[in-house]
From TrEMBL:
Name the UniProt record assigns to this protein: Peptide ABC transporter ATP-binding protein
Family: Belongs to the ABC transporter superfamily.
Source organism (scientific name): Alkalihalobacillus alcalophilus ATCC 27647 = CGMCC 1.3604
Biological process annotations from GO: peptide transport; transmembrane transport
CDD domains: ABC_NikE_OppD_transporters
């Protein structure tokens, strides 16, 4: 559960205006062990901030992040370091986060050594197994990051995340920089690894097809809030929130029997510095009524595992 008020990531803007921006605001949800929770939304909706907050890479000003029952936002540095073994994150651009001067084997060995994952004499074997598990081979141990393709580098960052035996992996646009065919390979790898390693994923992406491919449940974010949360099937076949309906109407779906009309939203997403009163979607919502401009809708349960934040649903 997160309920946070954030200074904007861009500190200069934050200082200039000397006020807080709610990049993520009143977001509350549960991730179940073993599931993949997809989080979708347009860029700037707060998805990444939310992911970073779960990891405590960004400090929330309010609320809590419970991991296995403990509020990790209250952890001191030492305990945070320990918990970061349990919660790993994979970013869009592995190149930026891989040490260019180290071979892949040396990099992975160092992590395993520092975190004392296996005894010293077993590190080499463990790294080789990791490389094989992510679809690389033993020879790749001696190579440098620049010698790999984009897809292979993402496999390396998956291996790096797996190396410390995490329980939860947050994937933030993890396949967004890859070609479509490579995307599918990496997504299938992530699926396979989830079962093999007993993982739970939070899969953040702006790409609705990618999220559909991998998720069990899906949350839709708009301007710092989750506006709808449901099982994948309900979300993709019968979305209830007007924003979700518009967003999902853009997916080309050749198999759909009742082909839905594409809904084009008017206007742009408002600035997080100037969040509309009432329902924050009302400036663009095709269904908005008077109450929407006055009162913020609650995030209500409307069916089993289906939550929506809209007055008219
Ligand atoms: Fe649209 Fe009103 Fe529902 Fe907001 S509460 S999504 S403005 S109908
Ligand atoms: Mg992002």
């Amino acid at each position: 559960s997160i309920k946070k008020y954030f200074p904007l990531e861009n500190n200069s803007l934050f200082k200039k205006n000397s006020r807080f921006v709610k990049a993520v605001d009143g977001v509350s949800f549960v991730v179940k062990k073993g599931e993949t929770l997809g989080i979708v939304g347009e860029s700037g909706c707060g998805k990444s901030t939310m992911g970073r907050t779960i990891l405590q890479l960004q400090t929330p000003t309010e609320g809590e992040v419970l991991f296995e029952g403990e509020d990790i936002s209250k952890f001191n540095r030492k305990r945070l370091r320990e918990i970061r073994k349990d919660i790993q994150i994979i970013f869009q651009d592995p190149f930026g986060s891989l040490n260019q001067r180290m071979t892949v084997g040396a990099m992975l060995s160092e992590i395993i050594h520092v975190h004392k994952i296996v005894p010293k004499n077993e590190v080499l074997k463990y790294v080789q197994k990791l490389l094989e598990d992510v679809g690389l081979n033993k020879e790749h141990y001696w190579r440098y990051p620049h010698e790999f393709s984009g897809g292979q580098r993402q496999r390396i960052s998956i291996a790096r995340a797996l190396a410390v035996k995490p329980k939860l992996i947050i994937c933030d646009e993890a396949v967004s920089a890859l070609d479509v065919s490579v995307q599918a390979q990496v997504l299938n790898l992530l699926k396979k690894l989830k079962y093999k390693y007993n993982l739970t994923y939070i899969f953040i992406s702006h790409d609705l097809s990618v999220v559909k491919h991998i998720s069990d449940r899906v949350g839709v974010m708009y301007l710092g809030k989750v506006v709808e949360l449901a099982n994948k099937k309900a979300m993709y076949q019968d979305p209830k929130h007007p924003y979700t309906q518009a967003l999902f109407s853009s997916i080309p779906d050749v198999t759909s029997v009742n082909k839905k009309e594409r809904i084009i939203l008017k206007g742009d997403v408002p600035s997080p510095l100037n969040i509309p009163k009432g329902c924050r979607f009302h400036t663009r919502c095709p269904a908005a009524e008077n109450i929407c401009r006055e009162k913020e809708p609650d995030f209500r349960k409307i069916a089993n595992e289906h939550y929506v934040s809209c007055h008219l649903v």
